[in-house]
Amino acid sequence: MIPDVSQALAWLESHPQALQGICRGLERETLRVTPNGHLATTGHPESLGAALTHKWITTDFAEALLEFITPVDGDIDHMLTFMRDLHRFTSREIGEERMWPLSMPCFIEDGQQIALAQYGSSNVGRFKTLYREGLKNRYGALMQTISGVHYNFSFPLAFWQARSGVTDAESGKEAISAGYFRLIRNYYRFGWVIPYLFGASPAICSSFLQGKPETLPFEKTDCGMYYLPYATSLRLSDLGYTNKSQSNLGITFNDLQTYVDGLKRAIKTPSEEYAAIGLMKDGRHLQLNSNVLQIENELYAPIRPKRVTRAGESPSDALLRGGIEYIEVRSLDINPFSPIGVDERQVRFLDLFMIWCALADAPEMSSAELLCTRKNWNRVILEGRKPGLTLGIGCETAQYPLAKVGKDLFHDLRRVAETLDGIAGDRQYQQVCDWLVACFDDPELTYSARILRSMIEKGIGGTGLELANHYREMLQSEPLELLSEAQLQAERDASWARQRDIEARDSEPFDSWLAKQA
């Protein structure tokens, strides 16, 4: 089932310098909760800065949903320490509130009481909130409170120069984009390994269903928790952060133009379902438009090709201009065993897996095969730890034991690890392989198995609150390491100044400005 990567690995071993200069970045979401574990109803704290313009601390869907963003970084320890400093600072600024350490939300009484993120009075700020209003009206506010970690990864130019023969990023943008699309296709075929190893949402609070009928064979506990005994990541299931109406868009990952064409088509295609919601009610906007996607970011995907956008530029126009600059991995649950929701082992594994995905052959995929890969993901998401579980490849009928496929993959990943460790002069990547490969022989070592044991004993609320309290004390007691209080306060003040400047420059009424965004 695993493609033969031996030639590509031999090439890598003879060109280790091609991996020097890998860049990464992290984004981590987390709900603010009260001391009793309920969703916080307070606004985004002003002392953290302006969510619209702060470089490192913002909000996602809701006022209570924090998002931390690290700068691009070539050093794993430095990146994780930066993220930890953001958590340390925030923990001290949110008073008695805590940061929820799980992907699936805490107890939420009524989905309609979730306050949408606010970004001030500017047109762009109001646009961001209206987009979230559309998400709420289309998919429900509860789904939007699910939290995750996004991992951004890019190869150094030296990799593409050695591997694809490009001379520079501009003239080589087509070859570089083709290389990243190869990575993405392999990710769709084999990325289920991420929820298997690191999925940490095998259960949900009964309040998450809000009285909706159960479509999965849940087991229930006395404390109101629903779980699947072998599940890894309900966050990635149809219960969580997915959108069935998007599965028929026919967006593929074979080349840049067809990918962008598919994306642009989706934001221009009217939807009968969303037209029924309407655009206005009682003088209030309900969504940006009634198309399949309001904007390109609404496409729910486990991985995205990305390029930093310029002012006023859409993500797809940025890709057409400069090609793919980096990829965004979106399948990581919050790691409940880390106070910052992600740890070094995960980052090092993702480095290895991204490199493998870029090296392995990846035949082009039709939209039909793309849907077939979803079957493997769903099987792992809902019953990944089930003894004897088998997986297919693409739309073929042949099945292979998950444990064997996983160990075959790690046989390759270890060779990548040896190359990376050779550059650094240590064994850190190989140690990650040692630790993770054992999870295929003993699924009880996976994150989902470990957290489920606690959840069955203490409930989601009990487990989440115990961890939230522990991490609050830990973070508040730790000194800042990279950022100073002065730097954090300077960025807070600068973010407010940037927001006021944007608001002062606005001269056009929102409705006429909005009409021009279509």
Structural overview:
This protein is an alpha+beta fold and 518 residues long. The protein is 45% helix and 11% strand. It has helices at residues 6-14, 76-93, 123-139, 141-144, 157-164, 173-190, 193-198, 256-268, 272-275, 315-322, 344-359, 367-383, 402-424, 428-441, 447-477, 485-505, 510-515, and strands spanning 23-33, 57-59, 65-69, 98-99, 148-154, 203-205, 219-220, 225-227, 280-281, 284-285, 303-306, 326-333, 390-391, 400-401. The strands form four sheets. Strands 1, 2, 3, 4, 5, 11 and 12 form a seven-stranded antiparallel beta sheet that branches. Strands 6-8-7 form a three-stranded antiparallel beta sheet, with helices on one face. α2 (76-93) packs across α15, α11 crosses α13 and α11 (344-359) crosses α14. It starts with 5 loop residues before the first helix and ends with a helix. The model has no long low-confidence stretch (mean pLDDT 95).
Features:
single chain; 518 residues; alpha+beta; 7-stranded antiparallel sheet; 3-stranded antiparallel sheet; 17 helices
Outline:
The chain is an alpha+beta fold and 518 residues long. It has helices at residues 6-14, 76-93, 123-139, 141-144, 157-164, 173-190, 193-198, 256-268, 272-275, 315-322, 344-359, 367-383, 402-424, 428-441, 447-477, 485-505, 510-515; strands at 23-33, 57-59, 65-69, 98-99, 148-154, 203-205, 219-220, 225-227, 280-281, 284-285, 303-306, 326-333, 390-391, 400-401.
